[in-house]
Automatic annotation (TrEMBL):
GO CC aspect terms: plasma membrane
Membrane-spanning parts: 7-30, 100-121, 142-167, 179-199, 239-265, 285-311
Lineage start: Bacteria, Bacillati, Actinomycetota, Actinomycetes, Micrococcales
Name used for this protein in its record: ABC transporter permease
Alphabetically ordered keywords of this record: Cell membrane, Membrane, Transmembrane, Transmembrane helix, Transport
Topological relation to the membrane, as annotated: Multi-pass membrane protein
Protein family per UniProt: Belongs to the binding-protein-dependent transport system permease family.
One protein family per Pfam: BPD_transp_1
Amino acid sequence: MRAFVFYVAKLLLSSFVLFIVVLTVLFFLLELAPGDPVQTLVGDAPISPQFEAQINAAYGLDLPSWQRYFIYIGNVLSGNLGYSFGTNNEPVLGLILSRAWNTLALGGPAFIISTAGGILLGSIAARTRRKWLDGGISGGAVALFSIPNFWFGMVLIMVFALWLGWFPTQGKSPYGQDGIAWQYAVLPVITMATTELAYKARIMRSSMIEALGQDFIDTARSKGLSAQSVLWRHALPNALLPMVTVAGYSLGFLFAGSALVESVFGWPGMGLLLVDAIHQQNNMVVLGVVIVLTVTIIIVNILTDIVYGLVDPRLRGRFARKPSVKVPDQEVSV
């Protein structure tokens, strides 16, 4: 138990250091970015020196970069992500949380579809190795994984929205209505799930082929078990171990990589908020979105490492209490 607590504490410490490094690099990269935020705020209109000084003082832009950095770090650690740079002056955290549900509405179904589909197709490909079905699944997975998801999304819009008219092109609900309509989410979810499904299918195929080559599979076959029973009851549980890590990383990637998909489909999630903030040089919102995505990925990775450490017998043995063996005293003859 002590080893497991030390393992978790080490994960938390390394994750916190990684978070500070990411935040520091991004903060100073945005400081070095060209452009004047105040001029971006007012557009092409001329700025009086008094107005510029007032805006700089209100947002702390008149302070040195290193001083604003330490102030921002302190605010972030206390849960304050600052305020949006603009006329609305909204709290960044509230702005992000209002978009988080929309991103989750795409990333959640895409994660479930890609994971379940990847396990199923990878298992079938491994079971039919070197046959036409394996070739079809493997070739299709390579092709889909090679296609950029934003380009694939535009193809889906052209075929299923413009030509066939089955789904709307952009948005999340009919004009003037709140909430999410399912027909608006179909194409973005397919776009986000396809690349991940192809990747997981290839990982699952390799893992299943390795599991099917183990000695305990030969033992199960020698007992007269059917091929289906050997595949699903004996090989699959062992082949799923690498998928725990892959699924954890893909969950973080789905949320972090949603910016392009949300931009293509005009989906008002955190990704589209990030893209708009970059165009408007709204650095507080950019930093806030990246912080939320970074924390999400770090939490998912920590949970993945903990789950992997619990389900993998090789790692689980490191956390088990070692039996104490008392060596009996021996008489030594001289």
